[in-house]
Design goal:
With 361 residues, this protein is an alpha+beta fold. The chain folds into two domains: 118 residues; 239 residues, Thrombin, subunit H (Beta Barrel), CATH 2.40.10.120. It is 35% helix and 24% strand. The strands form two sheets. The chain has a six-stranded antiparallel beta barrel. α2 packs across α3 and α3 runs antiparallel to α4. The longest helix has 39 residues.
């Protein structure tokens, strides 16, 4: 999270300027992040110190005006040396307090600048990292009852989420999810399907998988569309993905129209994403896909970056431009059958089109 955005949020919270929903989410972040609580306390102390310093400076200026008026009225001596001694003796306590406040303010400012230095901002990919134990086990959903479709000696390298863009079995995920040479996907019922890695666009961090398994039954209709137009700041969003081995729902809102360091191909959402969410779709309230989850800010809770849906169309165009066999192979879903349904009904329908990805060598 940028220095400006985080400082502005803290100030609005302290000043009681947040909307109820935003305040509730911010307090949830406070409960989960002791560092944020510490920052709020330090910010309160910092602003209080600045206010005290400003008040003392105003008081000092008023005293100086009174002193000058008394000199002009010959109430006190006007000799230069005498004035210096009289001023110091009368106001040395106030001067000492002001000096202490100035020193404390300098220390606080230095600490704040050090905390917000850009070198501390770290971006994490949201793919599942696989430990040594998982590499030797069947990396499966709790619902799976069949034998895994991965080869017997396969080594799982990473995982994430994907979603259908064409009922014939074409899925989109993040390029960084596919850290192996092959991948299987599992649906919400836990059934695994073999896939081919069709195209990888490392620049956009997107990739296309094709389900090639004979057990897969093509979907005649996909109930959502891939929306190329951009959404507004504050738009409510929700996600489905596989941070665990079962599909998981989460919700948030668009917090910035650009991503990390002003990246215009992404946008920021306020949402607590976890490893395994990479490649999962981001939906607006109507169930349109507006983006793909990709990364998060490591040292700030709830700052997640999403690749805009229009980048999917750019990736597909690049694929067709570089591979003539790609022309006519994908018909991206362009209609929405979810408007008017409540969220639970939307989730029940959408869960069948979001897949768990397991990459392996």
């Amino acid at each position: 999270m940028s220095e400006f955005y985080l400082t502005e949020s803290i100030e609005r919270y302290i000043n009681g300027e947040m909307l109820p929903e935003e305040k509730a989410y911010f307090e949830q972040m406070r409960a989960q992040n002791p560092e944020l609580n510490q920052m709020i306390a330090e910010h309160r102390s910092f602003t209080h110190t600045l206010s005290s310093f400003a008040n003392n400076k105003s008081f000092k200026a008023a005293l100086n005006d009174i002193h000058n008026r008394l000199v002009e009225e010959n109430v006190i001596p006007s000799k230069e040396d005498g004035l210096k001694i009289t001023w110091w003796q009368r106001y040395r306590k106030i001067t000492g307090i002001a000096a202490c406040i100035a020193g404390l303010t300098a220390l606080i400012i230095s600490g704040v600048i050090s905390f917000f230095t850009p070198n501390k901002i770290k971006i994490e990919q949201l793919s599942r990292q696989v430990n040594e134990l998982q590499k030797t086990q069947a990396f499966q959903s709790s619902k799976i009852t069949e034998v895994t479709k991965m080869p017997k000696n396969a080594v799982v390298t990473s995982g994430g989420s994907a979603f259908l863009i064409d009922g014939e079995g074409y899925l989109v995920t993040n390029a960084h999810v596919l850290k192996g040479s092959h991948a299987v996907v599992a649906n919400n019922d836990g059934h695994e399907f073999n896939t081919d890695i069709i195209f990888v666009d490392n620049t956009r961090d997107l990739a296309v998988l094709k389900i090639t398994d004979k057990d897969y039954k093509p979907s005649r209709i996909i109930p959502y569309d891939i929306k190329g137009a951009e959404e507004d700041l504050g738009t409510d969003v929700f996600t489905l993905g596989y941070p665990t081995n079962d599909v998981t729902y989460n919700k948030g809102y668009i917090s910035a129209l650009k991503g990390f360091n002003g990246d215009t191909s992404t946008f920021s959402i306020s949402l607590l994403a976890n490893p395994g969410n990479s490649g999962g779709p981001v939906f607006n309230r109507n169930g349109d896909v507006i983006g793909i989850l990709s990364t998060r800010e490591a040292n700030a809770q709830g700052v997640t970056f999403v690749i805009k849906s229009k980048e999917v169309f750019k990736m597909l165009k690049q694929w067709r431009d570089t591979d003539s066999s790609a022309i006519g192979r994908i018909s991206v879903s362009n209609r929405n059958n979810l408007k008017g349904y409540n969220r639970v009904e939307q989730i029940n329908k959408l869960s069948n089109y979001v897949f768990n990805v397991k990459a392996y060598n």
